Amino acid sequence: MLQDLEQLIELQGLDAEIAVLDGAIATIPDQIRMMEQQLVQAKAVLDAATAEVEKLQKLRRQKERELDEAGRELKKRQGRLYEIKTNQEYSATLKEVDGLKQKISTLEEEILVSLDDIDRVMKIRGQEDEKVRVTQAEFLKNKQQRQDELQKLQGRLSILRKTRESRSRNVEASLLQLYLRLLKSRDGLAVANATSRSCEGCHVTITPQLYNEIRRNEEIRTCEGCGRILYWKG
Length: 234
Prior knowledge:
Blueprint: H1 3-80, H2 87-168, H3 173-185, E1 191-193, H4 208-216, E2 221-222, E3 229-231
Parallel strand pairs: 1-3
Antiparallel strand pairs: 2-3
Helix pairs in contact: 1-2
């Protein structure tokens, strides 16, 4: 096989692997950001549940204070019943006592309901806390795996780029320029196999004469359809 053609085929292989590695490396930061976003979202849900618990506890404490106050007022009013001398004042105070008893009953019921609500939301908060714990552990583990993978890919990429640079020096300058133009304009495929009588790049059928020339791999031949450099792999 023509030496320049061999070098171009090797360059094509290197560039193809470099393109794959570049693509894989580019996705890793996005993968880490996505995992981080999942953790942020889990923490936001936990914060919302915590805020709801605090809100309900504050409301419960407020009702307990109101209950204590109503209890004190009730005792005060009940004590006055024994000191009142007129029927009119007695009836009014008795009405206030009944009203306070009703208020106390309502507050006691509301406190019981709020305790149930607090228990329910605290269970939710516990579940969300566990989700955050699991998500955080997975995030740290997966982040480390991605970073290790990134380091490995970058190491391999560095080797490939150095090899590519070295191989490029072995290709005649004008041919290398042609290769680079094709690489850029033909979606990363500048050198195409023609084993099945068609260009693997554009799939145009190759004429018998050209195909026979390509099969010898003794000169640089290009596809009549897309201009890619053709070779015969056998």
